[in-house]
């Protein structure tokens, strides 16, 4: 039997060995390592495909609730698919088109740790263990931000470090309170024990965990750090944050709302309402802020905050159909942001600038890149036939069924704004310029754009291919 | 001014949120079922007199591996940040060599500290202390040599080799536990040994020694990067 621990042991073992590998060759090109790692992890995930219908529960040394355990059911499988899939596409893009900063052993090392953290958070069934993996993911994310080595990246990295530390402090307070009052760390067991706690205590624990996770999930008003971090890091590092770190935080929120506090009701008050209001506020503020950005990475960062908030609005409705829609949207959003951040890296390198105004005519000079950006922009704005159209419609339908018409109006307004700013970029890309020679793009890079674009189109036309898994994942949360 | 008021308001709010803790947290009157299990079966299970070590290395072994990783990531981050920072040549010339007294004192203390560090991590399953503590003692021995100027720097080749070997072996031992015993990081694939003997408690002393070596070399490398020059040449 293959154990779920391999998902951790492989990237971790690799990260431990890498500093020695890089010795004396600090600039040797090792970008193939992340690519191979993600392929191997993908193969490993394939071996666990049956976990979708028959969940795997694996205790280490002691069986749960006494010891640490890994759980893999339909929800975990879906999130692992998102994490490993996005990591693969970004590693492929970086392998195809590497800047100097990705050479040397540092990037593969940080990438492996980043994956270790994200996968660990998803698999573990133990709250303290989740906190540890949360720390690993966060530290890897700070390092990714500073990878470029400019003063701006260090500024972003330190901002990220400070907010991340705040998030960790809150989670740690909650973890110690939980252990004090319930005497165990196993999350399923805690789901049984927590309802019996006094409600003041419960509210405190819930708030601390919520603040801790929401900082990383970029929920307003705890997301002020995020745009700076997106601007400070290389585009594809931004892609890793947007498609992996934020999704992992959303998963942690699901654990909090559905496993630890089943129903999230404390003293007759449902915290799903709080999540709904905050997510809607995040969505609207982020989309309006994105409209005013002149820096492409910053704009994509705001757009990412908005899209995840949209998915969270759906998740906060806590019905099975809304959850299915929200999870589907999270998956779609990862594909979109992998594509758009990879393209942003390309345009920024070619233009030598991050300012949107400097991308004039890039779509004419590089027709294929322009086409893929247009696909990504249309997809994120929710145009058919791309899959976000299906997930957005499902979210709107769930809101309609729940009678949340104010939320629905808010989402529609945000979508209009979103269409506006993405079209502004497209307009610049296709602005007429004097005829320039067309340049060739490496096939590996083209392939790394083609895969997410094809998936967005394919899943838009045949959503049923994936819907089976997603509704199983949503069902497993109850 | 406004910023300061906002700061004070948010601090007061946070204090209010945390207020229930003052009355809610009393002394625990009973031991939880998990702690009960550790107390009643821990010693028999793993044959280690130091129950804290049993919990840290075995029952919560995955957490400890994670903590080692956190330290590793932080050290890697420091090396990354210090890369390219080079001490001015002039600055270097200005630094004086160690005085005779300091140099002999440090050279005398170093082997004692070093051996004490090794003692702490090899006896982690018998007495207080363990891999992290032992590693830190070893790093402080290295710090003494670096600060007193007895050695110009710690060899990066050596620290990175030790670090990589110890880290990889830690993961490998975890996997051995998975296939030869009850689960990942289960130490019972090695013989239990005699109660409170140095070769007892299965793989626990091996794991703690690896942690000690890893932490010691990692922290020495970090101190080296901070004191002498950039992390790497």
TrEMBL record, chain B:
Transmembrane intervals: 64-82, 102-122, 134-154, 161-185, 197-216
Boundaries of every MrpA C-terminal/MbhE domain copy: 30-78
Any one of the GO CC terms: plasma membrane
Domain annotation Na+/H+ antiporter MnhB subunit-related protein: ranges: 104-219
Main location: membrane
Mode of membrane association: Multi-pass membrane protein
Keyword annotations of the record: Cell membrane, Membrane, Transmembrane, Transmembrane helix
Localization annotation: Cell membrane
Family: Belongs to the CPA3 antiporters (TC 2.A.63) subunit B family.
Name the record gives this protein: Multicomponent Na+:H+ antiporter subunit B
């Amino acid at each position: 039997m293959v154990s779920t621990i391999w998902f951790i042991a492989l990237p971790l073992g690799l990260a431990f060995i890498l500093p020695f590998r890089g010795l004396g060759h600090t600039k040797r090109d090792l970008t193939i390592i992340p690519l191979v790692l993600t392929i191997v992890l993908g193969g490993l995930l394939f071996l666990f495909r049956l976990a979708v219908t028959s969940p795997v529960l694996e205790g280490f040394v002691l069986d749960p609730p006494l010891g640490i355990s890994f759980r893999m059911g339909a929800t975990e499988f879906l999130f692992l698919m998102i994490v490993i899939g996005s990591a693969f596409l970004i590693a492929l893009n970086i392998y195809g088109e590497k800047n100097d900063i990705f050479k040397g052993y540092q990037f593969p090392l940080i990438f492996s740790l980043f994956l270790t953290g994200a996968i660990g958070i998803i698999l573990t069934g133990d709250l303290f263990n989740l906190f540890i993996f949360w720390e690993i993911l966060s530290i890897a994310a700070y390092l990714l931000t500073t990878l470029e080595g400019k003063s701006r990246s260090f500024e972003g990295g330190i901002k990220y470090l400070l907010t991340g530390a705040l998030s960790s402090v809150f989670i740690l307070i909650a973890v110690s309170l939980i252990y004090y009052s319930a005497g165990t760390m196993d999350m399923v067991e805690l789901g049984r024990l927590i309802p019996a706690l006094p409600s003041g205590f419960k509210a405190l624990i819930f708030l601390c965990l919520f603040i801790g996770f929401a900082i990383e999930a970029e929920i307003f008003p705890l997301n002020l750090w995020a745009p700076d971090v997106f601007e400070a890091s290389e585009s594809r590092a931004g892609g890793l944050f947007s498609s992996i770190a934020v999704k992992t935080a959303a998963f942690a929120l699901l654990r909090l709302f559905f496993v630890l506090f089943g129903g999230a009701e404390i003293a007759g008050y449902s915290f799903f309402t709080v999540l709904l209001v905050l997510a809607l506020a995040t969505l609207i503020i982020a989309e309006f802020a994105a409209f005013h950005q002149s820096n492409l990475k910053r704009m994509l960062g705001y757009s990412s905050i908005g899209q995840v908030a949209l998915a969270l609005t759906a998740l906060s409705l806590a019905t099975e159909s809304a959850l299915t829609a929200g999870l589907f949207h999270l998956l779609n959003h990862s594909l979109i942001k992998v594509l758009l951040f990879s393209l942003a890296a390309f345009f920024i390198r070619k233009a030598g600038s991050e300012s949107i105004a400097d991308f004039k005519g890039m779509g004419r000079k590089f027709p294929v890149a322009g086409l893929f950006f247009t696909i990504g922009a249309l997809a994120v704005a929710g145009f058919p036939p791309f899959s976000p159209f299906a997930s957005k419609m499902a979210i709107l339908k769930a809101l309609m069924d729940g009678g949340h018409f104010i939320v629905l109006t808010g989402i529609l307004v945000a979508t209009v704004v979103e269409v506006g700013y993405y079209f502004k970029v497209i307009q610049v890309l296709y602005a007429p310029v004097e005829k320039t020679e067309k340049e060739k793009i490496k096939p590996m890079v083209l392939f790394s754009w083609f895969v997410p674009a094809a998936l967005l189109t394919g899943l838009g036309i045949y959503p049923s291919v994936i819907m089976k898994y997603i509704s199983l994942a949503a069902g497993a949360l109850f | 001014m406004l910023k300061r008021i906002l700061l004070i308001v948010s601090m007061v709010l946070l204090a209010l949120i945390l207020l229930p803790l003052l009355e809610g947290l009393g002394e625990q009157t009973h031991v939880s079922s998990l702690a009960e299990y550790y107390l009643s079966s821990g010693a028999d299970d793993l044959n280690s007199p130091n129950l804290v070590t049993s919990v840290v290395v075995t029952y919560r072994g995955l957490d400890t591996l994670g903590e080692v990783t956190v330290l590793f990531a932080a050290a890697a981050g420091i090396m990354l940040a210090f890369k390219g920072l080079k001490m001015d040549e002039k600055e270097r010339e200005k630094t004086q060599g160690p005085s005779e007294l300091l140099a002999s004192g440090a050279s005398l203390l170093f082997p004692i500290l070093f051996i004490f560090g090794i003692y702490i991590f090899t006896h982690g399953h018998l007495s207080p202390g363990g891999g992290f503590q032992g590693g830190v003692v070893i790093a402080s021995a290295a710090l003494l040599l670096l600060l007193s100027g007895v050695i110009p720097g710690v060899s990066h080749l050596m620290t990175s080799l030790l670090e990589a070997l110890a880290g990889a072996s830690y993961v490998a031992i975890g996997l051995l536990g998975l296939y030869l015993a009850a689960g990942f990081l289960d130490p019972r694939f090695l013989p239990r040994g005699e109660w409170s003997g140095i070769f007892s408690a299965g793989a626990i002393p091996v794991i703690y020694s690896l942690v000690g070596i890893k932490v010691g070399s990692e922290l020495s490398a970090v101190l080296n990067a901070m004191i002498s020059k950039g992390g790497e040449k």
